[in-house]
Structures are given as structure tokens and as C-alpha cells.
Design goal:
Layout: E1 2-5, E2 27-29, E3 35-41, E4 45-48, H1 55-66, E5 77-86, E6 92-97, E7 102-108, E8 112-115, E9 119-122, E10 129-133, E11 138-145, E12 147-148, E13 155-159, E14 163-176, E15 183-184, E16 190-195, E17 199-205
Parallel strand pairs: 4-17
Antiparallel strand pairs: 1-9, 2-16, 3-5, 5-11, 6-10, 6-14, 7-14, 8-13, 12-13, 14-16, 14-17, 15-16
């Protein structure tokens, strides 16, 4: 049995990324967490592949799929890594998986399109699982495509033309002990959100 998660559809052909003081640094919410999220890639250059469609037709196909009309095109394949590092001098407990743990990739740039479509999911709630993270140690999340979000499928990001882009990863998780300013999840963990600095990506015409 399935249900449909209704989410706001956002179709954004974003303009050039505006200068924002501090935008090139990782962020945490609440501020001052003993964790840092970074996004890196074995390569930051990728070919443009629209499956034979024009940029306009490709955008229309993505928009239609986001509204539940048709299957969305495959998101670009990438070879990236999101790293969650304990920057404190003590061991902490963090959620490593489960439904409350959500990694989202947001693409910015002139030809960027991001959409959060309706996603059919099973009814069960997948409880979060905590793991001990020693001082200076990291958890890594491999990223092989620009499909992300709830259960790894709720958010799709695309580039639609050659050019320069920026990719930002956001991770919602839990931290124990509960940091000041975080919402108590009721199990000793505080709900936290971490955001990476933008990763610059170059998209080139397919050869």
C-alpha cells in the first residue's frame, strides 16, 4: 500500500548566482554545531546530455513530471561525496539513516532546474539510527546522481545548458547531546540542519 507525499513543486531556471557574504562557507542550524558538512567531487566537469531534446523541451518534460504528468527524465550522473565531520574534541551521536535523515541537492545557475515531484512511498516510518562519531572522524554519503531528498527520491536537479553552476547539499539529521537551540526529538537527539559551501560545477557540450 502506498501513499503520495504532496510537496511544493518548484521549477526554477535560476539566474546567475548573486554574491552573498558568507555563502561560500558551510552553515549549521542551529549555529555553532560541532559538525561540518562538505561537498567534494572526483570531477567537477560534466557533459550536457538532454536525451536528444532541446533545452526548452527538456524543461517542459521536467515540469510536467513534477506535476505528475509523465516520468521525469533521468537526473545527471555525477561522482560526488558529502562528508559529515565531527569538529569537536569529543564523541557525538548522529543519525546516519532513517526517514528523518534527508540529504537534498540544490543546483543553482542560469540553466538550473530543480523540482520536488509527488513521490509514492510505502506507509511504514523508518526510524532514525544513530551512530557514534569520534572527534575528527567523518561519515560519508556517496552521490552518484542529482536525485536526492526524502528517501533519496523527493528532489530532482537538472542542468539544461552548458555553463557554470553551483551545487549545495543540505542534510537534516539528529545530534546527541541535544545542542542549544535544537528541537528535542524526544529520544535524546536534537534535530539539526547542515549546509555545505557551494561546489562549482562546469557543464560542457557533449562531444
Amino acid at each position: 500500500m502506498t501513499r503520495r507525499i504532496l510537496t511544493l513543486v518548484l521549477i526554477a531556471a535560476a539566474g546567475p548566482v548573486a554574491a552573498d557574504k558568507g555563502a561560500d562557507k558551510p552553515k549549521t542550524d542551529p549555529a555553532g554545531l560541532p559538525l561540518e558538512l562538505t561537498l567534494t567531487g572526483k570531477t567537477t566537469k560534466y557533459p550536457l546530455d538532454l536525451g536528444g531534446l532541446s533545452a526548452d523541451d527538456f524543461k517542459k518534460a521536467v515540469a510536467a513530471a513534477g506535476k505528475g504528468r509523465g516520468k521525469p527524465p533521468a537526473t545527471p550522473a555525477v561522482d560526488l561525496t558529502v562528508e559529515l565531520k565531527n569538529t569537536s574534541n569529543a564523541t557525538v551521536q548522529v543519525w546516519s539513516k532513517g526517514d528523518p535523515v534527508v540529504l537534498t541537492l540544490e543546483l543553482k545557475g542560469k540553466g538550473a532546474v530543480n523540482v520536488s515531484p509527488q513521490v509514492p512511498v510505502t506507509l511504514e516510518f523508518r526510524l532514525p539510527e544513530g551512530v557514534g562519531l569520534e572527534a575528527g572522524k567523518s561519515l560519508t554519503f556517496p552521490v552518484k546522481s542529482l536525485t536526492s531528498g526524502f528517501r533519496g527520491a523527493g528532489h530532482l536537479a537538472y542542468w539544461t545548458e552548458p555553463g557554470e553552476y553551483e551545487l549545495v547539499a543540505t542534510l537534516k539529521s539528529g545530534l546527541l547531546p541535544i545542542p542549544k537551540g535544537a528541537m528535542d526529538n524526544g529520544d535524546g537527539y536534537g534535530v539539526v540542519t547542515l549546509t555545505t559551501a557551494p561546489l562549482k560545477i562546469t557543464v560542457e557540450e557533449k562531444k
